[in-house]
Request: fold
Amino acid sequence: MTTIQRIWRIKNILLRLISTRCLECGFIAYPPKASCPKCGSRKVVEEELPKVGEVLTYTVINVPLKGFEEFTPLIIGLIKLGDAKVLAELVDVKPEDVRIGMKVVATLRRSTKTLDGVIPYVLKFKPLTLKLNTTT
Amino acid sequence: MRKVYVVGVGMTKVGKHTEVSMRDLAAEAISNALDEVGNEKPEAIVVGNMLSSLVEQENLAALIADHAGLRGICGLKVEGACGSGGVAVLTGYLMVASGLYSKVLVVGVEKLLERPTPDTLRGLAYAADADYELIYGVSFAGLNALIMRYYMSKYNVKREELALWSVMMHQNGVKNPYAQLRNEITLETVLNSPVVADPIRLYDACPLSDGAAAIYLTNEDWKKLSDTPVLIAGVSNAVDSPDLSSRFSLDELFASRLSAENALRMAKLSVKDVDVAEIHDAYTITAAVSLESIGFAEKGKAAKLWSEGRFKPGDKPTINPSGGLKSRGHPVGATGVYQVAEVVMQLRGDFPGVLVPAEVGLTQNVGGVGSNVTTVLLKR
Reply:
């Protein structure tokens, strides 16, 4: 279970999905790194990731970690967002309907309470459904 | 650098040791190792452990050395998640190779069954990235399940093929008196076991374990402590990101490959020279990607090879004659030391379970989902 300090410290990264892009080799890393994991360069710049992507792989967790009982079964996906990958919870979809390659979009949702009893909000991902405008 | 030899090993049975404290588990392994070297007092002790906070105890080197009658010697603890035992072996190697010490005891110890399972699972998940991944409630099994689904989809590997690994490990472990799960299982046992983190089922996973193992390291001057000293021909560690998100690849353990390549180069050996290996099969998928990253199988082919009967006793290499993490068990901070002790006994010809003729052995201990990996090459 996390703390309010942690959520406060990294809220900008979590809610805007801030990655780092290397100015030397171009490698993009999420979570953001102080130096490039690929070439070691310290010349990295922050870059906001797109909020729409596709599921690279996923799992449905039946045995929860302490504190996540109410979110079980918990669907976790690794999502391709542009040139980066982000691990996050998948919501608004039944476990049996999740597919590799499924298009998803970020959505702001409640997470489990912190140790201090605060309710943090994080980005989760839901299926992207294109709604056609049928009114003329 | 001085050459480093293993001249004594000791283990406890892996399992649930409710009646034994952490210090007594460690002392039993130490006592067994000291018996092999005529009770020659070591000059230093290195303890490998990940989660002693579960039993509300830190300062393990002092606790264990003192309890084992070694008050006054040099002592330290090292940690590398489930790879803590491996980094303890590497640290002990360095202390002897450097010439600073001549006789170093390396002890791995872990007690995972002291607390309710959700507490232990939470502790194990600390090996992942707490800020950016654990915050979503992903368990250690969940992280490995992400790799498993990706791998099965990319290489068209069947569920049944991966499950056969567990069957094979139990066949080996049933003969190992130190193993935790000493029963044979069938393919159906694996395929019908409860889903932990889809597609990982209970019998894809290693058990939670208590246990301790020790190895006694010396240089050329002291190798006479044993009639059958075993040379540490190569040792190497590599790290990768604790998070899966920024990995270069999801179907290869980058740190496993680098650590194996470097250890083999140091030993002037090729992967084809290895007769016996103990690898880190925390999950059936971990066995597959480890075998491929080390170089025992081509990418995407490991499960096909073991489905055809490869890696069993008698094959070169024989993999996990102990039963591996799956059957021997996985007392996390001790596992890397168990692996070295087991392969030393294989090379000496006195392992009390499945025994294979071997001149060259390899161990690989993995922390996190391949984020802290130590490979050791052992030679008779």
Observations:
- Chain A has a mean pLDDT of 94.
- Chain A has one helix and eight strands.
- The helical segments of chain A are 4-16.
